[in-house]
Amino acid sequence: MSAIRINSPTTALTLSIKHLTCNPSFPTNCRRFKRNTVAMSSAPLQVCAKSSLTVPNKLGDCPFTQRVLLTLEEKHLPYDLKLVDLGNKPDWFLSISPEGKVPVAKVDDKWIADSDVITQTVEEKFPDPSLVTPPEKASVGSKIFSTYIGFLKSKDANDGTEQALLNELSAFNDYIKENGPFINGKDISAADLSLGPKLYHMEIALGHFKKWSVPDSLPHLKTYMKTVFSLDSFIKTMPLTEDVIEGWRPKVMG
Ligand SMILES: N[C@@H](CCC(=O)N[C@@H](CS)C(=O)NCC(=O)O)C(=O)O
Predict the structure, then answer these.
(1) Half-sphere exposure of 121 (CA within 13 A, CB side)
(2) Predicted confidence band of residue 182 (pLDDT cuts 50, 70, 90)
(3) Which domains can be identified in the chain, with CATH numbers?
(4) Most buried residue among 2, 112, 130, 176 by CB atoms closer than 10 A?
(5) Which residues cross the membrane (predicted)?
(6) Residues 183-196: pLDDT tens digits?
């Protein structure tokens, strides 16, 4: 059952904050007050996220939402999380997200949708520490997710989808070898926070549904994944393995 299945936005918000701040078994969702003193002077951001499909009151498996949460974590910004059952979307959620999609985030009293827009808005409002990826590097690895989905959904082992993914992963491996450890060199940036959750889904879903794993011939990619998946921010915001599998199952079967 979802943590929030209440139609009144006011009640839902109250319950979510109370729940998230009081439940020690829910470590990813507590308000965070770290070192961002600018953020400490304003109210916590609010983020609507997919709830777990397998465990009540737990963050679910949306890579776009994790990207937003990673951005907030890396900037040490406090936030409140409101879990939404995407299989049974409440009216209060549809009123702030007419497309019915997560993430949506409330910044400066305004709900905004889409992880691209949210992360850009957060960067502008809270520029320190900067997570800006230089424009010439911003598209590095950007085709990996779509080629991964193509391979995941493929029912024909010879349709070239695996090779298409391997080509993208190989190009990324070579890029990181020359430019790493992160896409922008020594410091993590927005492009890593977008790609990391997608690579995590790829690893779990292809491992489960195709018994496939990143080949040893791509060691720099493997090291990159290990580095990103080990970040404190990633561990705090990552989905359960079971949720990633259940989240992709309809697409694999469909
Ligand atoms: N382009 C959007 C994509 C967001 C998206 O597709 N979210 C999915 C969950 S990961 C969703 O809310 N789907 C609606 C549904 O499952 O009903 C973004 O970057 O935020």
Answers:
(1) 17
(2) very high
(3) 9-125 (3.40.30.10), 135-253 (1.20.1050.10)
(4) 176
(5) none
(6) 999 999 999 999 99
